[in-house]
Amino acid sequence: MQQRPAPEQIIFSTKDSSGKIYIREQQGYFQRIRRSLGTVLMLLFVLLPWLNYQGMQAIQLDVAQQRFFIFGQVLVPQDLLIIALLFTLAAFALFYLTKLYGRVWCGYTCPQTVWTLLFVWLERRIEGSHSQSKALDKAPWHAVKITKKVLKHSSWLLVSLFSALVFIAYFVPVRSLYSDFFSLNSSATVYGWVWFFTACTYINAGLIREKMCLHMCPYARFQSAMFETATKLVTYDAARGEQRGARKRQQAKAAGLGDCVDCELCVQVCPVGIDIRQGLQYECINCGLCIDACDQTMRHFNYPTGLIRYQGEPAEQSPWRRHLGYSSALALTLLAIVGWGYQWQNTELSISRDRQALFRVTSEGITENTFTLHISNKQQQARQYQLHINGLSTPQLIGSNLISLNPAEQRQHIISIAVADAATGAYSPFTLQLTDIVSGETVNASSRFYYPR
């Protein structure tokens, strides 16, 4: 088994990152995986806003009203603990995946990588191969060059605009977004955010590309702290490949030469422009494109594949200890999500007292307390509720005990409770019960009823 580079052999920067990297197109096993994943994720991103549930957009975040609609349920700011738990779960899953397989998230599913490779695909269709694109950039300006550059950047801007509109569709009703946008009927806020995200996509995926990963993304900086000797990273087998040297396909391998034919395809296909043969480098996103390129060359020369491959050393810890930490964190987070879902209700009720007076005594000797109810209907259908008072002796609710709320409505409802018989103490605890007339679901809120001493 090939040995990992010693610490002094690990290279942290192998190139001048200021120049443009001309990425060569490559086919192969890992490229098919990437394109399949990218296609599925892109389709989900585009189609989810169009999904309807119970006659309404299934997923929408209404920032103005501070409500998150998701498959018939409405989450209000008090419910955002679930968002924090989901992000925590995703973070632990990402860290666990990094421990096992390095930066495969960056290489296969990160939006920066997916959009960058999409933009590179458009560039190859318009400007030709990577060498033709490089020659075009070096050539003086002429009609063909101007035409190709205009087509390329126009296609990038159209993809960027479409991506921005899809993203905004998660915040604005999608069935009116596109028609209003192109008919100039959208608000200035919508236009501002669409053009902002269009510019971000165009700059990130079209102009700066790998520099986003190298210099701006924090994950690229701390991910190496999660590596261990057993982490499967893209690795060049130097013992088998060296001494490298060029040769013809049918030519017998000269004495002293390894399997590496020094074709440099592994460098030409790399999205971040590194030479994996120089050792472990933090720029590597574990995308496997160099593996596909090298395996293709090995097959042409009738050599065994795997000169460049995913490889890790034997784990220093037993399997259960190696997986215990992140598995436990994931399990605990999942339990917290299940617990939150178990106690979550479609209706939220809280109660607060009138701050002007603890109580009021009428001329008939009846004691009244005033309260403000805060009620949220977290469903996308109108609901009618019935209010009950438990825990007080002969309570009388002044006004109607029926409350109607529109879909996703939050309301303050003021009530007064009257009690004729004075209690022996200064106050009596009681519970308000709000019952959904249709479903029978109940929610409770507790408070105190105060009496004159």
Provide a descriptive summary of the structure in words.
Pfam families: Fer4_18 (PF13746), FixG_C (PF11614). Keywords: 4Fe-4S, Electron transport, Iron, Iron-sulfur, Membrane, Metal-binding, Transmembrane, Transmembrane helix, Transport. The chain crosses the membrane at residues 33-51, 80-97, 155-178, 190-208. InterPro entries: 4Fe4S_Fe-S-bd, 4Fe4S_Fe_S_CS, Cyt_c_oxidase_cbb3_FixG, Electron_Trans/Redox, FixG_C, Helical_ferredxn, Ig-like_fold. This protein is of the alpha+beta class. It has a domain at 347-450: Immunoglobulins (Immunoglobulin-like). It contains 14 helices and 16 strands. It has helices at residues 29-47, 81-101, 104-109, 111-127, 130-138, 143-168, 174-182, 188-208, 210-216, 219-222, 238-241, 265-268, 289-300, 319-343; strands spanning 52-53, 56-57, 59-62, 67-70, 73-75, 233-236, 308-311, 347-353, 360-361, 367-377, 383-390, 395-398, 402-405, 410-419, 427-436, 442-450. A hairpin with a 4-residue loop joins strand 3 (59-62) and strand 4 (67-70). Helix 2 (81-101) packs antiparallel against helix 14. Residues 1-17 have low confidence and may be disordered.
